[in-house]
Write a structure and sequence with these properties.
Number of helices: 11
Helix content: 40-55%
Shape: globular
CATH architecture of the largest domain: 3-Layer(aba) Sandwich
Strand order of the largest sheet: 2-10-9-8-7-3-4
Order of helices and strands: EHHEHEHEEEHEHEHEEHHEEHEEEH
Distance between the termini: 44 Å
Strand content: 5-15%
CATH class of the largest domain: Alpha Beta
CATH topology of the largest domain: Aspartate Aminotransferase, domain 2
């Protein structure tokens, strides 16, 4: 008889996980990227070079570079971030972490306590909201438009909170290729965001994990690059530009707060081999790789935009992204995308219901997020056709499902 752990479980233990049985036939969830774009051959060569040169450093925690991560990788990041988004920092202001999720956890550990308040974009990253919920942290969503978080709404929110004696700990924002809407905040709005943060004494947590994937290859300067008071903590990741499974991200901040984040990182160091290989690879190949990846993702974005227009017609309002791997779709109010998610999953199509990606779930009731990074163009077209069939079957919309029986 199996041992019963149930009496021993912590009150905070999560519910049990479901056994993984493989991806659904049409998988539009997660942050997966194009498998053909992973630079496998270059990784093999980089592995040989760096292990021959510095493999003996694997005998030490931190690769003889200290707790902030492999120094050549931090040096690449410091110079690359200055060139690409205008941030000026040294390698000593960079902390390598195990993906952006660890970055979120470290910032939360250092800055947040139960009952604290955080401001977020109304539509925002689900993983962030889940963490605030687990911590007992309150959050309030500010509406977004095609240029990101709306400044007049943010100003009003800050004023209302101040009037009742609440100062938020920070504003969490994804300003460049926003998740899930795909918008890019222009520089004048970034400056206004900083002005409001300065006036109210609120920090900014800038999540820039998708910033290199703008389809036209251009981007505004990061908010941190515009900040002259050290009020912005910056987060980036290689998960979307190189490969999600690498689990490598980074934080950039002034030393006063970065030193606290380093102290909170108690995992004995982020994966060493990944850091070594990536540092060797990125110096020579990063820009060319990202340029090629943008082209691949733009083709897939066009494919899913066209498929949504063809299959859903005017029943779907699509926020065409300016980059990245996600597309945000609004369906008529009669459609509950949580119910659509359940019906679609049973039929081999995985989608993200919008309620899970909104600070106020009711605002996302008829919205959904689709990831187009991993499926082929053919699977994108077939999967959207099947999703339209399912939506028509469950909700009568679109009024005529154009491809009944298609989708294989």
């Amino acid at each position: 008889m199996a041992f019963d752990y149930s009496p021993l479980l912590s009150a905070a233990a999560p519910p049990p996980a479901v056994r993984w049985s493989g991806f659904p036939r049409y998988n539009f969830v997660g942050g997966h990227n194009d498998s053909g774009a992973v630079p496998v051959d270059d990784f093999i060569e980089a592995s040989r070079r760096v292990l021959a040169r510095e493999g003996h450093n694997l005998a030490t925690y931190g690769l003889a570079s200290g707790p902030q991560g492999y120094r050549p990788l931090r040096e690449f990041l410091a110079s690359s971030l200055e060139r690409r988004c205008g941030m000026r920092q040294t390698a000593d202001e960079v902390l390598v972490v195990s993906g952006s999720l660890q970055a979120l956890d470290l910032v939360n550990d250092v800055l947040l306590e139960p009952g604290d308040m955080v401001i977020v974009e109304e539509a925002t990253y689900q993983g962030t909201l889940q963490r605030y919920d687990r911590l007992g942290v309150r959050y309030i969503g500010v509406p977004v438009d095609e240029d990101g978080i709306r400044m007049e709404a943010l100003s009003g929110t800050l004023d209302r909170l101040k009037s009742v004696g609440i100062r938020p700990k920070f504003i969490y924002t994804v300003p460049t290729v926003q998740n899930p809407t795909g918008s890019v905040m222009p520089e004048d709005r970034r400056l206004e965001l900083l002005r409001l943060a300065y006036a109210h004494g609120v920090a900014i947590f800038e999540d820039d994990c998708y910033a290199e994937l703008t389809f036209d290859g251009t981007r505004p300067r990061s908010i941190r690059a515009l900040d002259d008071r050290g009020q912005v903590i910056y987060c980036g990741s290689f998960s979307k530009t190189i490969a999600p499974a690498l689990r490598l991200g980074y934080l950039v901040a002034d030393w006063d707060i970065l030193s606290r984040l380093i102290a909170a990182k108690r995992d004995a160091g982020t994966g060493a081999l990944e850091q070594m290989v990536l540092a060797d690879y990125c110096v020579s190949h990063f820009d060319d790789h990202v340029s090629r990846l943008r082209g691949v993702l733009k083709e897939k974005c066009d494919a899913i935009s066209d498929a949504l227009a063809a299959e859903f017609g005017t029943a779907a309002e699509v926020s065409v992204p300016k980059g990245g791997i996600f597309i945000w779709v609004t369906l008529p109010e009669s459609v509950d995308t949580m119910k659509l998610f359940q019906a679609a999953m049973a039929d081999g199509v995985a989608i993200n219901p919008g309620a899970e990606w909104c600070a106020d779930p009711s605002t996302g009731r008829n919205k959904l997020r689709l990831c187009f990074g991993h499926p082929s163009v053919a699977d994108i077209r077939a999967g959207v056709a099947r999703l339209a069939d399912i939506c028509h079957r469950e909700f009568g919309l679109p009024e005529r499902s154009r491809n009944v029986g298609r989708g294989e």
